[in-house]
Amino acid sequence: MIQEKDSFKNTMADKSEVIIHIKDLYKSFGKNHVLNGFNMKLYKGENLVVMGKSGSGKSVMIKCLVGLIQPDSGYISVMGNEIKMMDRPTLDILRSEIGFLFQGSALYDSMTVRENLEFPMRRHKKKLGNISDTTPLVLEALESVGLVDAIDLMPEELSGGMKRRVALARTLILRPKIILYDEPTSGLDPITAKEIIELMRSIQKKYGTSSLIITHDVDCARVISERMILLVDGINYAQGTYDELVKSNDPKVEAFFKK
Amino acid sequence: MNTAKPILGGIKQFFIEIGELAYFAGRFFKELFKPPFELKELLRQCYNMGNRSLILVLVTGFIIGLVLTLQSRPTLIEFGAESWMPNMVGISIVRELGPVITALVCAGRIASGIGAELGSMRVTEQIDAMEVSGTNPFKYLVVTRILAATLMLPLLVIMGDAIALYGSALVENFKGEVSFQLYFNRVFDALDYRDLIPATVKSFFFGFAIGLVGCFKGYYSKKGTAGVGLAANTAVVFTSMLLFVIDFIAVFISDIFYDL
Predict the structure, then answer these.
(1) Smallest CA–CA separation between B121 and chain A, in Å?
(2) Closest residue by Cα to residue B160 from B240, B206, B99, B230
(3) CA-based, 20 to 30 A from A12: which of A2, B78, B84, B115?
(4) B97 in a domain, yes or no?
(5) B132 to chain A: nearest residue by CA?
(6) Average pLDDT, consecutive stretches of 10 residues, N- to C-terminus, chain B (260 residues)
């Protein structure tokens, strides 16, 4: 197993503050043991990429983080709050600090772009200062992703890349401190994927968010990651910077970076 | 032995599903009285279900009234009981045919629609996105839909009954030269509270069953597009079966209370 060296050189990460801490996470579906004691720390302002093959448990791990899936055992803490110990209302408040970009964008089909962006605000008006007019916030979020003109369109009228941008705008609407990206470039052509990666970087710069990116796209990982974890057989098999991992002689690590 | 195994497995699966459905219904009642109340979404669902099913219910009801009268006429004439036509048609439509046929039409229209919609939302992670955004998807999607179906079905049944009686009156007017006024006077003379109360009460249960099964099948739809189709399909089949069971129980109970 490869362990990280000094991976924090030249990054925005503040290693003194752990935002997400996962310890000994286990999750099985019947006889399929997906996570076998996974460990991870995400520091404030960091871009951490978790890479793994399809079906390696990346999405399961990220869903355990927001309480969408209950792990069999293990410790998960987000901003100092242990997920397992939280009741529904407290978890919902914590969730407003976490933006989640789903793999397929997950825009609500029956709502316009504006309604999609307004939807998360209905439960978190207090956080936004009990504003009565949500339009400026919607416009600001859409402006961040360059899609102000699409405000009244339905999701079916958008291309794949546009849907991903709108979904990104929706994750930003509550001004989260953490953004979780589940395969942000999957299903997109290389040019659109590059645009989405650039957008992710500019968002991090503008809002100072910490990002956890789940992907199997090596190019995406190379451009965006400050630190990487390779998830193999349900554990964090290797971790370090992209350059550290790409030079590894370990056959399982090499397999990820082979062209 | 080899044939018994899948049959026993099927029976076991059926009872597991019944148990899960009962748990789902229990969760509905638990969430129903807890704030926040999604009134806007409830009204939207009422409009969707009522408005979109109305034409189908009206057309079906009209044809049922028409056909029932046309096919009963020769027999009643043979026994010299033609004048009993409004009584017979009125009672059979209000007590049984109206509620059951409207419910079956709505099972095809509403239960399958809910199953497909929620199934597709599950597959495309829209339900997860709702959960992450701090909205309780069970309350927003399931409670509103079950409640809307429960409230809308009795209204659809009343409209279905009315148009079926109109269809029947039309045949009597053409063939038997009975005026509309006379026909409807005879219908209302024949009906009393023993016909109206059980039929209305069971319509609420029919609506509840349609919403419940549609939501249950869609909400727990398995991943993949095939799962969405299956959710819609099984929602209709399961609801239709459940409707007949509810109808049997309703008639049985009505018989005890009203001595029909």
Answers:
(1) 8
(2) B99
(3) A2
(4) yes
(5) A95
(6) 81 91 96 90 95 94 96 92 92 95 95 95 94 92 97 97 96 90 93 90 96 96 85 93 95 82
Domain enclosing residue B71, as ranges: 37-258
Q: Establish if A170 belongs to a structural domain.
A: no
**What ipTM describes this predicted complex?**
0.88
A250 is in which domain, residue-wise? 7-87+211-259
DSSP-derived secondary structure for B75-104 = HHHHTT-GGGHHHHHHHHIIIIIHHHHHHH
Nearest CA to B66 among B175, B169, B156? B169
**Number of domains comprising chain B:** 1
- What CATH number did the domain enclosing A39 receive? 3.40.50.300
Query: Which residues, numbered 118 to 137 in chain B, qualify as contacts with chain A under a Cβ-Cβ cut-off of 8 Å?
Result: 120-121, 124-126, 128-136
On whether residue B18 sits in a domain, the answer given is no
Nearest-by-Cβ selection for B125 from A92, A95, A104: A104
Sheet holding A81-82, edge to edge: A32-44, A14-29, A73-78, A81-82
Residue A189 falls inside a structural domain = no
Structural domain contains residue A33: yes
The number of distinct structural domains making up chain A is 1
Q: Which residues of A touch B (CB under 8 A)?
A: 63, 66, 68, 88, 92-93, 95-96, 98, 100, 102-104, 106-109, 119-120, 122-124, 174
